[in-house]
Each structure stands twice: as C-alpha cells, then as structure tokens.
Amino acid sequence: MTYLEKHQDGAKWLLAVSSSQSAAQLIVSSGEPVISMWGWSGSDRAMTLARLKELVKKGELHYIQLGGGGMGGGPGGGSDVSSEVTQWVQKNGTAVKESEYGSTSGSGSGSDSSADTSAQSNQSTIYRLDPSDVS
After folding, report:
1. Nearest CA-CA partner of 64 in 9, 130, 17, 107
2. Which of 2, 49, 56, 111 is deepest in the core (most CB within 10 A)?
3. Span 70-84, mean pLDDT?
4. 73 or 4, which is more confident?
C-alpha cells in the first residue's frame, strides 16, 4: 500500500477493489478510504462505468484493482456492468507493474503483456487512471 499512498496525488480514494471484504482489509491496514465496486461478496452491481468515469475525471480515484480470485468470487459476479467497467479500465488505464507496489503473488516476468492478461487469471492487476484517460 505504500506505493499507492505515495502516488495517491490528492485523490479521495486510495483504491477501488472488487469486494467489501478486500476493501475492509485494506482500510484497516492503510487507514485510507477504499471503494468496494461489487459489494460484500463481490456480486453486487454497486459501481457503474459512468460513476467510475466521474470519480476518475474529478481526480478522486486513480487506482483500480482488477482480477484476483481470492476474495468475494470475482468482480461483479460476471455481470454486464462489471464486464463493461473491467474492459474500460483495461483499455484506458495503465497497468502498474507488480514490482512497483510489492505484490506477493510471485508472477512471471512483469512484462506489459503479462500485466494485460493477469486480470483474466487468478492474479490481480492494479491500473492507474487519470482525468485525461476519460473521454
């Protein structure tokens, strides 16, 4: 979390994650506000693409974590809303290399191609979005 705190750049939210369980752990460990996009179990449709774009455009949120099968059964329970959000983040965001934020999942080379596909596996990827990424 140190990386995210150092690069928060005045954003209201430290990170958006898939479930409230994940968010709660991060809030307790960092003391910073974290958004749960898909509710307690990871299956609610709490985040819409329009709302996410609004938060990014206002500079209130820069980092979104996608993927990771550990907590809450995955983002949005496979809903159309979560798929739309995921696709937009992957297309417009910049994947942060695991070596930057100290992930302990022990993935492969850390190349751009592995970062793009890791959200589709059990690994998670953190993406950076800035107001200029919102059209």
Report:
1. 17
2. 56
3. 58
4. 4
Q: Are the CB atoms for 70 and 21 separated by under 8 Å?
A: no
Q: What is the pLDDT averaged over residues 69-92?
A: 70
Q: What backbone phi and psi angles, to 5 degrees, belong to 120?
A: -90, -10
Cα 14–16–20 angle (5° rounding)?
Answer: 110
Model pLDDT, residue 134: 95
Angstrom distance (rounded) from CA 17 to CA 19: 6
Structure-token match 């995921």, residue found: 86
- Tokens of residue 126, six digits: 């953190």
Containing 98, the helix (H) or strand (E) segment is: helix 98-101
- Confidence band, pLDDT 50/70/90 cuts, at residue 113: very low
What sign does the dihedral 101-25-42-5 (CA atoms) show? negative
Contact (CB, 8 A) for 36 and 92:
no
Return the structure tokens found at 83.
Answer: 């798929």
Which residues are CB-contacts of 117 (< 8 A; sequence separation ≥ 6)? Answer: none
Is 33 in a helix, a strand, or coil? coil
Quote the pTM value.
Answer: 0.77
